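Sample A.
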Amino acid sequence: MERSAQVSRKTSETDITARLVLESLEESRIQSGVPFLDHMLSAVAKHGRMHIDLVCAGDTEIDDHHSVEDIGIVLGQAFQKAIGDKAGIVRFGSSIIPMDDALTMTAVDISGRPFFEYTGMGLNGYIGKYSEELTCEFFRSFVFNAGINLHVNVLHGKNRHHVHESIFKSVAVSLYRAMVFDDFLQGKILSTKGTI
């Protein structure tokens, strides 16, 4: 059974259409209008074993902020729809991912209770034209629309590109580990409450 969802969102600032397929190795097609984000989302798709088909027309002549934030909203909504009732999934996932000099640890709980926490070096510079603070904006939007708990801890890193790549790849691996099915659960929800 394919777990997938398509979400569209149009505002005065952005016009976004996205299709997300979980557990897929199909090549992704990402046109966010923010080249660095395209690169990062391609890494998420590959290492998260998912297909992302996304097009965004945004007011990037003003700033990349609206596009990045709204793409987080749309992908979060798509993830929540694609994951379904969460029956049989592992629910928790974590990873520690190196990228040359950078090392990032992330942990995910597909809990239905959104929470985002970032710790580590300040993300307050630029990579080319990309404002580093947008990485946290993206994940905050994604988390609160996906209904998941995400902790990101950058342990160390010098090269800013490597730091962000380790963040996105680590989140992708943690998401994959959390969303896969556990045959032992036999379709039951992993919660003492009986629901997530």
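Sample B, a different protein:
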Amino acid sequence: MIHIIGAPSSNAKAVFYAYRELGVDCKIILSPAELRNSNKIVLPGVGAFGALSDFLHDSRFIQPLRSLLDEGVKLLGICLGMQILALESEESQGHKGIEVFELKCKKFEGAKLRVPHTGWDQVSITSNHEVLEGLTAEFSAYFSHSYYLPVQTDLTLAVTSYGAEFTSVIAKRNIFGVQFHPERSQSNGRKILSNFADW
């Protein structure tokens, strides 16, 4: 069973339907009590870092999540759900993330860049991982974001270039994150969702 955290304004339903199409048993959960006995968790997210941070803290998800992750439960963070695994974001000063990755989300800057970075772009794999199995070294995925995690060689598994290189896939032990939306990335995205279910 994959538990999908149904934060307000998230893409939880889209992830749920993507998994249902893959024949994977899953459930959207709205309270930390429903995390009991989880062995796989998906944390999707769209919108503002501060809003997701407030939801997770106010709903008391943070401590149960940290405890489960310390126990080895596997988690997939999607888009903002990946960013919230960092310490904080330039988007929402004073709001804390889950603090799994000792990184800070930064805003895209550059006169020629359209922000948000939206649409299909290339993902270049720099390190192998079980969740990336079956994908080519460069594959396309669908993005929609204004902030990003910088590249950190011991954590970053794939990069995308938009003005400069940023982290599009990240992992640390039992925690895996993607900046793009696998539920909107057709066969490449379905492969990642399927691999995570099998991981």
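Observation for Sample B: The mean pLDDT is 96.
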